[in-house]
Amino acid sequence: MDSHCSTSRLVLFTFFLLCFLAGNSSATRPGFVYTRHRGRCTPQYWSSEREAWPRMVPERSTVEKMFGVMVAKERWRSDLTLLESTARNDEEGNAYGALLKQGIAALLNSYARKRFSYAPWEVKTMLIQAMISEPAARRQAEQFALANVACEL
Predict the structure, then answer these.
(1) Phi and psi at residue 143, to the nearest 5°
(2) 114: closest CA among 74, 152, 62?
(3) What are the C-alpha distances in Å from 108 to residues 14, 86, 148?
(4) Is 118 left (phi over 0), alpha (psi -120 to 50) or beta?
(5) What is the spatial distance between Cα 34 and Cα 29, in angstroms, rounded to a whole number?
(6) Which residues pair with 62 in a beta bridge?
(7) Is residue 135 within 8 Å of 95, Cβ to Cβ?
(8) ∠ at Cα 119 (92, 73), nearest 5°?
(9) CA-CA distance, 53 to 49, in Å (whole number)?
(10) How many Cα atoms are found within 13 Å in the side-chain-facing hemisphere of 149?
(11) Interacting residues of 148 by C-beta distance below 8 A, sequence separation 6+
């Protein structure tokens, strides 16, 4: 009876230890089941083309045309389209990639969502200003991401 009780305790302890270790590792990287926020204001939503893009922001337009030659040439290809930018998957560890992806989603939301946090001119200005450094780009990308996730229709 004693060995059965100690075996049960050992199994229970091992289970809790594995749960604890798995909880810490999944906080730093995606696990087996990869989840993304798929709200109606995120870059993933806009890249899916489930909704027509606002006429002021054509999906085939380039980053260069939307934000200016100097911004585009500094970090991205001159022919990179807005649709390609929202579908990018290089934002992990790439502050400028995250800034572009979240900034374009914020720009789309500013035209398409009446109650969005920012006006179109604010999004463009903040994106251009954030290009000054990697920490500034990372901070602005996070602010855009929060606004995109929290936007109301």
Answers:
(1) -65, -45
(2) 152
(3) 49, 10, 10
(4) beta
(5) 9
(6) 81
(7) yes
(8) 50
(9) 8
(10) 8
(11) 39, 41, 42, 43, 102, 105, 106, 109
Tokens for 56?
């002021």
**Tokens standing for 117?**
């946090």
Q: What is the pLDDT of residues 59-93, one digit of tens each?
A: 888 888 887 766 666 777 778 888 888 887 876 77
The encoded tokens of residue 107 equal 């720009």
Q: Which two tokens stand for residue 41?
A: 């204001």
Taken as a whole, the chain contains a residue count of 153
Query: Could you give the maximum distance between any two Cα atoms of the chain, in Å?
Result: 77
For the cut 50, the answer to whether the pLDDT of residue 30 exceeds it is: no
